[in-house]
């Protein structure tokens, strides 16, 4: 059995679950690398990453380099004498860092690679209407998410899952997969597999204002997948046109409803108001919005919003 000394790298809550699992399994974490403290909130006070908060509470050695190639940081990292590095939701590493440990550097990625390489794999699996996803551990190489696969674990995507639901499920599945991976490396039983590309793999593009905006001209299921694939973060949005005023409306929750049999289908973006929902026409059905946020207002259920907000007869989404 190899004596494993671990450097852990990560920043958000998704990474904390794995670090917690390593500590719970009494694995030897000799250092943690996370993002520098950053100004946040109205007061712009420095805020620690979720990983730093947990690592500090556990009295772990914490490093927060601004430049991963900085000679002082490299010297400090070498001084921790780690022989394995684990990366979960961190930034791209320079070769001098990922090649340093004797047993390599592996990453936990929230997809079944080679599908959904990139920044937002959980979101895009739901947006694209997939019914299955999973997590992968793989050895880091010089490209992004292309290294040899160590282990994978699958999970279904339920029809009503939001990205928040799936994120939390994958976070815990991923933490157990990392423990299994470390044990296999310690036992020297790993047989890594080169990623096999069959056809064109799906890509987890970085989310931006263009690809998070709702396209009401799509089929209703595609719009519904888009909304749940971005809830609760970063949130799908649309432009609400009401009394000639345009506002950016964030759509947190909704459900899909097919059109009743009728001769003329409404134009996409047409609004129909009900007691507890704002229904918006798509190509072949209604998206019934139940939770929304308008500028200057808090996120709220539509039935509460409609108590003090009036939509005109010709209001629409675009």
Give a brief outline of the structure.
The chain is an alpha/beta fold and 318 residues long. Helix content is 24%, strand content 28%. Strands 5-2-1-6-7-9-10 form a 7-stranded mixed β-sheet. Strands 12, 13, 14, 15, 16, 17 and 18 form a 7-stranded antiparallel β-sheet that branches.
Can you tag this structure with a few keywords?
single chain; 2 domains; Rossmann fold; Methionyl-tRNA Fmet Formyltransferase, Chain A, domain 2; seven-stranded antiparallel sheet; 318 residues; seven-stranded mixed sheet; elongated; alpha/beta; 18 strands
Low-confidence stretches: none
Compute the gyration radius: what is it?
23 Å
Write down the CATH class of the largest domain: Alpha Beta
* Total number of beta strands: 18
User: Which class best fits the helix and strand makeup?
Assistant: alpha/beta
Principal-axes geometry comes out as elongated
Structure overview:
This protein is α/β, with parallel strands linked by helices and 318 residues long. It has 2 domains: 6-186, Formyl transferase, N-terminal domain (Rossmann fold); 220-317, Methionyl-tRNA Fmet Formyltransferase, Chain A, domain 2. Helix content is 24%, strand content 28%. It is built from 8 helices and 18 strands. The strands form 4 sheets. Strands 5-2-1-6-7-9-10 form a 7-stranded mixed sheet. Strands 12, 13, 14, 15, 16, 17 and 18 form a 7-stranded antiparallel sheet that branches. The protein has a two-stranded antiparallel sheet with strand order 3-4. Strand 15 and strand 16 (285-293) form a beta hairpin. The longest helix has 24 residues, at 163-186.
